[in-house]
């Protein structure tokens, strides 16, 4: 067995490993190519007094310029049809796989079910952490089980959907960020495909003669490409704020002033408002602050115009939150994780 210390990469540059392209370095980097390395990694880190953080595709993080610890990147690959039930095909995927490649692969295998989640950046292992969602679908809808390394017990544990405590952009893994390392994810894709076309921009497809998982995926790709800036050209971390879910009374004055404001009724007398709409109405679409700004294309997206660090992003996020709070009385919350 190679000594773990020999595999640590000193002064590891992470600027090309986060989609916001923030200047970021880690005292050590480590490519984790299999779960066997994890017990050794955490033992070594504890012995050396070094914190460990796990990074997937780096698409939902705001990295600090210097991390005085070990940044471990999951580099585990593989996807397979793992079995079937009466109604579902079970797909098992390693954490390091790219989410969008998985979407394309399942469609090539003839399985629909995750086509609405096409083009979401990031890895498969990161998908359950924030229960990725788009176009009326979320990971929880097709989730079967996952395995994760539990740092507390030092063993590999299996989670079913209930144990994951999925909610809007949330899960037990997001709530306890230092505890679990997701290793494999199993999806249950329905054998009898039902298109999910409720979202604006997809409903027109309902009458298409060639309606299939692939045509829906192609439409989702076209929609995302037209609305959201591409992080390869304009570095960003997707939606920067969650859509706020507020009591009806907090939404009422806004809807009285703007009857057409996007709003989606929820359980327990609550309403989901659109953070992008609130930010645009606050006059911040295209707003710039130093090297960062709000995208001119979508008010929910923070972009790095070049050379930004975590503090620049934090200052802009605070400005947006203060402005929206003063204008509408609504508190916004960041979606990416500051690491
Ligand atoms: N809007 C504006 N101005 C803007 C952007 C949007 O007024 O600049 C309004 C639009 O009029 C629209 C409403 O906001 O009525 C919603 O916009 P959109 O359909 O673009 O969706 P979103 O709520 O802003 C969510 C997800 C996205 C996901 C899309 C599509 C969150 C935080 N974001 O955005 O997820 O792709 O729906 O389903 O839930 C991500 O998480 O990184 C992400 C991109």
Describe the fold and architecture:
The protein is α+β, with helices and mostly antiparallel strands. The protein folds into three domains: 4-74, Uridine Diphospho-n-acetylenolpyruvylglucosamine Reductase, domain 2 (2-Layer Sandwich), CATH 3.30.43.10; 79-225, 2-Layer Sandwich (Uridine Diphospho-n-acetylenolpyruvylglucosamine Reductase, domain 3); 230-338, UDP-N-acetylenolpyruvoylglucosamine reductase, C-terminal domain (Uridine Diphospho-n-acetylenolpyruvylglucosamine Reductase, domain 1), CATH 3.90.78.10. The protein is 25% helix and 28% strand. It contains nine helices and 20 strands. It has helices at residues 4-7, 37-48, 99-108, 161-164, 172-175, 213-227, 248-257, 275-281, 310-328, and strands spanning 9-13, 25-32, 52-55, 61-62, 66-74, 79-84, 88-94, 133-134, 137-138, 143-150, 155-160, 180-190, 236-239, 245-247, 263-266, 270-273, 288-289, 292-294, 301-304, 337-338. It is globular, with a radius of gyration of 21 Å. The two termini are 31 Å apart. The model has no long low-confidence stretch (mean pLDDT 96). It binds uridine-diphosphate-2(N-acetylglucosaminyl) butyric acid. Residues 134-135, 227-228, 238-239, 242-243, 262, 274, 276-277, 280, 285, 298-300, 335 line the site of uridine-diphosphate-2(N-acetylglucosaminyl) butyric acid.
């Amino acid at each position: 067995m190679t000594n773990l210390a020999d595999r640590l990469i000193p002064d590891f540059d992470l600027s090309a490993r986060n989609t916001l392209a923030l200047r970021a370095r880690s005292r050590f980097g480590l490519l984790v190519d299999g779960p066997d390395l994890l017990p050794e990694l955490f033992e070594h880190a504890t012995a050396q007094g070094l914190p460990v953080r796990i990074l997937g595709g780096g698409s939902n993080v705001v990295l600090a310029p210097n991390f005085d610890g070990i940044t471990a990147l999951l580099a585990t690959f593989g996807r397979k049809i793992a079995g079937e039930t009466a109604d579902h095909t079970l797909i098992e995927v390693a954490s390091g796989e790219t989410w969008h490649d998985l979407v394309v692969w399942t469609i090539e295998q003839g399985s629909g079910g995750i086509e609405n989640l096409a083009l979401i950046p990031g890895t498969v292992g990161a998908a359950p952490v924030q229960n990725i969602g788009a176009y009326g679908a979320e990971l929880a809808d097709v989730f079967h089980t996952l395995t994760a390394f539990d740092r507390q017990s030092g063993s590999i544990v299996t989670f079913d959907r209930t144990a994951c405590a999925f909610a809007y952009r949330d899960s037990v893994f997001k709530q306890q960020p230092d505890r679990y390392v997701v290793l494999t994810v199993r999806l249950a894709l329905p054998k009898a495909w039902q298109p999910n076309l409720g979202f604006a921009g997809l409903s027109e497809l309902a009458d298409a003669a060639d309606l299939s998982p692939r045509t829906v995926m192609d439409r989702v790709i076209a929609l995302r490409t037209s609305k959201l800036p591409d992080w390869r050209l304009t570095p960003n971390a997707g939606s920067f704020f969650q859509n706020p879910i507020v009591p009806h009374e907090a939404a009422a004055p806004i809807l009285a002033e703007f009857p057409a404001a996007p709003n989606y009724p929820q359980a327990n007398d609550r309403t989901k408002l659109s953070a992008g709409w609130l930010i645009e109405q606050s006059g911040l679409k295209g707003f710039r602050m130093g090297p960062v700004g709000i995208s001119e294309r979508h008010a929910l997206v923070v972009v790095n115009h070049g050379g930004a660090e975590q503090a620049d992003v934090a200052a802009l996020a605070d400005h947006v939150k203060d402005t929206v709070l003063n204008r509408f009385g609504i508190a916004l919350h960041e979606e990416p994780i500051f690491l």
